[in-house]
Amino acid sequence: MAEQNYSNHIRWYVPHHFVFYPITLGLMAFGVYEAVCNEEQRMIWIFFTALTAVVTWLSFMLRQHYGMTLQNRLVLLELRYRYFVTANERFEPLETQLSFGQRAALRFAPDEELVVLVKRAVSEKLSADDIKKSIKNWKGDYKRI
After folding, report:
1. Would residue 139 count as lying in a domain?
2. What is the pLDDT of residues 36-78, one digit of tens each?
3. How far is residue 58's CA from residue 72's CA, in Å, rounded to a whole number?
4. How many domains would you assign to the chain?
5. What's the burial of 85, exposed, middle or buried (CB within 10 Å: 0-12/13-18/19+)?
6. Is residue 43 in a domain?
7. Half-sphere exposure at residue 80, Cβ-oriented, CA atoms within 13 angstroms
8. Dihedral-angle region of residue 88 (phi above 0 means left; psi in -120 to 50 means alpha; beta otherwise)
9. Would you say the pTM of this structure is higher than 0.85?
10. Residue 123 belongs to some domain of the structure
11. DSSP 53-73
12. Which terminal CB of the chain, N or C, has fewer other CB atoms within 10 Å?
């Protein structure tokens, strides 16, 4: 696996992004084509297309919701632990001053940079993107989807 950094840290889930979604988009396109060309069964094809669109949307939302909720919780717990180990103080008073995006960006900071970057993020109100760009020695997160 290639070393992770700012420019390649986004990950794709192949079964959904490159198999399921293209198939459902193809089915929707086919349904629209049939609804336009097949006047006798137009309502059936409109229903088919709408049903395919709803199933696609629901599958996307559920996949995102379940996976991201759990991963967000794990990111926060890991950050709390790492901050406590490196700073010898609890992270909870500081985490209320940071958005989840900022906290998630901090997971890429190595232990040597974490404490200073947390304090900078709070005092300078750095955005998540600014936090990521401030990291000198990127610590890859190869487990997050």
Report:
1. no
2. 999 999 999 999 999 999 999 998 888 778 888 888 899 999 9
3. 20
4. 1
5. exposed
6. yes
7. 12
8. left
9. no
10. yes
11. HHHHHHHHHHHHHHHHHHHHH
12. N
